[in-house]
Protein: Helix-turn-helix transcriptional regulator
Organism: Janibacter alittae
Amino acid sequence: MTRANAGDWLPPSVIDDIDTVLDDPAPHAVVLGRTGDGQPVVARMLAARMTDAAETQDVLVLEGEDLAGEDVHERVRHLAGRGARLVLVPWTAAAPVVPHDLLASCSTLRLRPWSEQDVAEYLEHCHDVAPTGELVRTLAEATGGHPAFIRHFTSLRRSPAEPPSVLDPGLWEHALDRQMATLGPTARTLVDELAIGFMVHRAPLAPSLAETDRRDRVVEELDQHALLGPDGELLPLVRHTVRRGMPVHRIMRIGHAVVEGISDPTPHAAVIEELFAGGARCERLADITGDLGDSALHSAPENALAWYDRSEASGASLSDLAPRRAEALLRIGDVAAAAHICDLVLASGHDVDLDRVVSTAIVAHVERGLVSQARALALWASGALGTVPAVDLLATREAAGDPSQDDESTDTVAATAPTAGAPTLGRVAAETARHGLQTSLTGATAEAVGQLVKAAHLLPPAPSALSPYPVSLLAGWAALHVGDSTTARAVAERARPSLRPHIIQRELLLGWASLWQGDLSGARSHADRAAAGLHDSQLRNRLVLAGLRSGIARRTTDEAAAVQAWTDATQCLDRVEPDLFSLLALGELNIAAVRLRQTEALTADLDRAHQLLENLGSPPLWSTPLNWSSVQAAILANQPSAIAPHATALLHAAEHHPFAARLARAGKAWMHVLARDFDAAEVRAAVTGLAQVGQAWDGARLAAHAAARCDDPRQTASLRELARSLRDPDEDRSEPPAGESVPGSILLSEREVEVVRLVLDGKTYREVGEELYLSPRTVEHHMARIRQRSGAQTRRELLERLQRTLHLVS
């Protein structure tokens, strides 16, 4: 229950100020504050205390009407001359009605906003219940610590424990009506402007302040009515309440005045949004909201879409907005919707911003996995419009398996590009990238990668132009295709394109680079970040992501993750056309298909991929990794005959491609291992070569296969140790315990956890050994030591304890 004397409660700080005034020898006092600060209550308490101290002297409180009129100075001087002590409460704090000759004999008590502690103590005083910290904070912020608003709030609330809906306009309408009843017309207009987002002391400045020569006086009027907070801006509760109750005609009046005078709408974005939400509509507002959408297009495409919607609602042309809206959809990853809008524009025959429409559509088709459609559109646009950059046209054609060195359209575009303007770095980069792409088809792999990397470094670090295959990412994929994961990572880390699909591609490239460097944790992190930003319609990126996750699962022997990655891939395969820059993923999925006995599901896609490469002349740079993965798949499937064509292709490429040479040497060594006719030194050399070009995992498998087929115990141990060192380069050979012992569990080393996990999956000791590059006898010894430590009497009891142990360490 609210206490009856709550209206007379004063914060301890005010009581301290009263004591200070009483200690002052000055006979009179002035109490200053804003409307509703409680000056009468303070003045009466001060007068009562002064009366007790003066005993025989009269103490008079003069406020309101007592201090009105032309003769106020004479009356105040007369009362003071009779020996009375005065407590004056003037209407305005800035101009106290006190004769100048009496100012020296007055002590001033200035009331300040309540602190959060004052608010908390007042609420507790009113309800005998300690309020929540959230209520205290929100009430203090909303009211600016103004006592009148705080007292009003508590008069409407039954308990401070109720939800603190402090900004509910319904709480404040009547209180604000009283507070604003005496505002002048300019000040009232200013409140309306501030309620829709204008500011007093910073941009966007309220129009009323810019137009009046009484700026300080108008702001002072609002402050005296306690409508401004500690920061000098409109109180939150005032802004919310006034904004909700503002009629449309007032919003329209302000809106028309504002939009006609705006040259740069960016600082006024919040105001424009409020005007639109309030019902303001006009032709100029349509232009302004469209401009705001354009300014947000690269940095915040979601906001750009919202601005374009407002522009359309304000009367903007749909055909004018369509190209920009399509680009915004592309930048948030909704490539299907972007492509649909572009198709509508192209089919309509309108020539509004066709360059943007074509660029958007080409990127959207690539991201959806429709590389042939992207190629067709690029070819049409290069002839009909002449606007597709030569490097984009070339990359799109090569990605689709369309050899283009002898094509006149590409050469024509490339030849005219340098003369179209100054030889900027951007033009030089594009020309260098074009040469790099063409060279990548001729066999000079190192030169091709060097040109692409050079082009990537010439470009700005954050290009915003739409491109189906950004040069920096082309350079990264090319570097990976020659086994240079370090360069691939460096190029990808430097590239920070603002287009969201390209950011996802960048994460995927970094993930593949980490995978080839043996950083499986980093690869998983990049895969997760790519997945977080993927839109459902970005099927190409989803396929590349599935390939990356499949590669991670293979290297961590995570069967569940491998199955999930394969499932994700199969949802894309029928709808995505393989392109030149997604072959790494297809190769990894080829190995996964063999492991999961699902090879028929990938046959058509592999045939298309090999046909694509054949159409390009089987360039070693792009074909080598796919051939190597095909070798790995054939080995895994135990089909030596299927190795031959891919091994032959690697041998042919080895003449001009060092990466292919290392893989060819490893493939040859592997065939000898399968035939049980190999030299251990040659195997070690091949394994070392694989590790140097990012294929350490496959090198470990080669060493393990050779160890399992070697008749020399020393060579067997050496090869097995080589396999283990490549698979776990940082493994602690002392095998420390994996965790503290728990009743019912078994204390296991990290290696023993791996062995147990595979045994519980139903694998034989030989299969476990092949997975972990151990001999079957070593696996058997691991299990024997585990059983001895466990104290289990039966196999069933042992397996139960092992299950419990894995649950604890997982």
Summary: Confidence is low (pLDDT under 50) at residues 406-420, 730-743. The beta strands are 28-32, 59-63, 85-89, 106-110. The first helix runs from residue 12 to 23.
